[in-house]
Write a structure and sequence with these properties.
single chain, 242 residues, alpha+beta, 2 domains, 8 strands
Amino acid sequence: MADLTNSIDEIIDVDKLFDLLDITADEQATISDGEISYNFFTISDIDDGKKEILGNIGFKEFKESIFFIEGGEIRTKEALNYLLPLYQQKEIECWDEIIEKLVNINEKGIIIFNPSSKQLRIVSKWKGKIVQNEDEFMRLVLDLNHLFRESCKNGTEYRINDKCRSHDFWKIIGNLRNYCYSHDPEQWSEDKVKEYSEKVKSTNEFLFSSPTVKKTPIDFLNAQFKLFNTCLDFLELTAGEI
């Protein structure tokens, strides 16, 4: 896997770090001597693995369940050195669940997502990989489009109903694929450009919380997991509609 930390030179605040680690602080306090501030956090529900990550990043354990760190911001490069293995494992678990749901759907007696060797290559290519930039993210979207939309075709029709095709996941991968890969925007009418621009804007708001803000590697990491969670919800819906 490419080194995600090579291109990072920003900071992450403690709240966002805790969110990435799925840590909830029971209480928080700040103590300052006028020059240096120390942030203390009471965290009653934390396992040894996350304790170790906090220690590696720069937190110190004041006493049982109480941790402190100087200042309220951490260099993202330092944090991701310890977060990446955790998120690689989560990504693998997401793929395992996606594959299981795909198999369960196709075992209902009607093939909805036509199996192929290309599907196997897509899963092998992405399982355990964390995307770090827009180019990688869009290649993932293109492969997900093939894995689900293209494999779901029966001639020119899809094997799922309107309710499934209205799901956010189905629309996201379709809108991004169509806008970025299928057409030459210079050949579109003004109305078509406006239509697809609005769809992509809405998609970016969903995945990245903002359609315009400069995206960091952590933003792409979060978008990848949001996309996978939306995919799992789509598969749950599809299984119930067969």
